[in-house]
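This part of the workshop introduces the protein records we will be handling. The structure tokens are whole numbers drawn from a learned vocabulary of backbone shapes. The record below serves as our worked example for the rest of this section.

===
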Amino acid sequence: MEKKDSENLYRILPFDRAVEILKGSLYFSHPSTWDDPFETIVDHDKAHAMFAQCWCMNGVSDAMWRIYSPNNLGVRIRTTRTKLKEAMNSAGAKGYKKRIKEVEYTTSASLKDRAKDIAAQLQKKFDPSKAADLFFMKRSAFEHEQEVRALLYCEDAPANEPKRGWSIKIDGHALVQSILLDPRVPSHFGSAMKLYLRRTIGFKGPVQTSVLYTKPPVFDGRVPEEDLL
């Protein structure tokens, strides 16, 4: 199903990485730095020049907090596809090929077959668009991530000095719409983080702590004492 550009996207990341974004630096990782070995299942002449970052379509996820905020000090930033596109089309990203698209989840066998087919096509003629297709396929074991990926193809990246990541300059305050702190963050850390974002960074969007683990009111289901007589 095609997604609208206005759709919200979310990333849970370390607090310092969120600050980097607000200060104007958007970082894209090389897939060789990711845990999933299937991310580099096809090697090709421009494999060193492709970088990506991962966003989630699900704004409320216990699993995502536990995976991406293991020390309870991570934050969730929110944006939209439109704003992410605008950031990637900014002056700092001119000349790069770009793509934003949701990930398709499939079986390991199917992914291997499709990767083999793409590798065969790239051997005949390199097509960056075809090579980029590999970034948008993952095994079904990762389906809980509901992932949307943003890809940068930096054709001029030096092959003899492969990078672990690539940064572009953006307006971070235009990209990030709101910030949510980990629901498990200690209160004193949470207060300090909010103060820093407001006074030092000057972020004007909503900054709140997730209420995912806030205890709800307990409803009394006990039998009234008079009914026990």
Notes: Residues 8-212 form one domain. The longest strand covers residues 8-14. The two ends are 60 Å apart (CA to CA).
